[in-house]
Amino acid sequence: MIDYARPYEQNMCDLYLAPTPPAQARLDDFQVFKKGTAYIYGNYYSNSYDAYQEPELDTAVYHNLVNSREYRREDWKYKVVADWNEDDTVSWLIETAQCLGFSEYDVPFYNFKVHGLDLKLMKREEVLQRMITPNVDPMLSRRLADAVFEKLQNRLSEEMYRDRESSVFRYVESDPYQHSDAVQTVLDLDSLEHKNRLYTSDYRPNDSSLLQGACDSSDDAEDVFRSSETASPEYYGSDGSKSGDEDDKRKSFKRPPGRPKGSGRKISKRPRSVSVPEFLRNLLLDPRYCPSIIKWEDHAQKKFRFMKPDEVAKLWGKMKQNDNMTFEKFSRAMRYHYRQSVLVSVPTARLVYQFGPKGPDITTANPSMVKVKSETDVNEVIFS
DNA sequence: CTATATTTTCCTGATT
DNA sequence: AAATCAGGAAAATATA
């Protein structure tokens, strides 16, 4: 059953041309040397496919909520807001949200890909509108929006003040978010063994006074938020792991018994990663991918066709940080979903599959299927 | 940490 | 002949 599939959201797949981060070395890379045939085989494939690559899609990155880490650049720190480009705005937003003790997964950052000038003009209400997203508690989004808005206003007024002080503006020394030195070693084996590390532990507290509660066991946004206001997080006395040389003030506080107020709400921590069927659904509902590389064959029957199987596989690989993904392997993953009727095969037709009874929800507010349908027919004629 | 679910890799054999 | 399909097997990852 694929009841875990998140509802489709616009911008769920996001396409952008940011430089791709250095690919993580995977153990799989080395397996090539264990199998002589695979080595030659692989070369052959990659060479022949290179000829078909379309530059536009080559640099495309399928974005899902998981890789906001692409926006970890810090250019924005050295510019005035008015000079921020879209990426600067997003980078700032993500970092600010984290400094405030929120999870980056609560931030629908793709709604904030705006130039700094537009951000400046944004009213509190608009920030809120953009912050709202189906998977996050609206109250949480509201607090996040408010807090972010305040931060923005602070920065803007500080800029104004500095502008009067000196005509030459430099932001560096006033940076409220000094980043700690990167703790990265070339020989760090962890980075080889677990790619998740990138988004689980890449996160470094920038403001310890605010972040005290953000990284610990609290699931509750209320707790996190309150700790930033009153600095009264819970004290772990039993195992002793948190006591000792830590902050003395903490010892005088003890969490009152019972469930903290408002702790029943669910906030999004790390969202479940996108499954193969979900991924397909997302592409199918996104006009940036839909007719071009994958399209509906028959929306009513949930049938779809791969136009460029290798491009789809490449996107999947990109999303999973796996440069070795091929349609061959991707389709194997698809076939495993036959068992549960999430997908069903369409015999005789090649590159055509179908969502089964347990498939993801494919409804959408703006179906572009009508147009697709006619293109289908055209292509059909040409093909045969 | 354990168990289950999903995905990746590789492979054999069949089909178009 | 090259692509695509079907699954088995096993290992790797992800999630509960």
TrEMBL record:
Keywords: DNA-binding, Nucleus. It is found in: Nucleus. Residues 251-272 have a biased composition (Basic residues). One of its GO terms (biological process) is cell differentiation. Residues 209-272 are annotated as: Disordered. GO terms for molecular function: DNA-binding transcription factor activity, RNA polymerase II-specific; sequence-specific DNA binding. PROSITE patterns: ETS_DOMAIN_3. Pfam families: Ets. One of its GO terms (cellular component) is nucleus. SMART domains: ETS. Residues 274-356 form the ETS domain. InterPro entries: Ets_dom, ETS_fam, SAM/pointed_sf, WH-like_DNA-bd_sf, WH_DNA-bd_sf. Its main location: nucleus. Belongs to the ETS family. This is ETS domain-containing protein. It comes from Diatraea saccharalis (sugarcane borer).
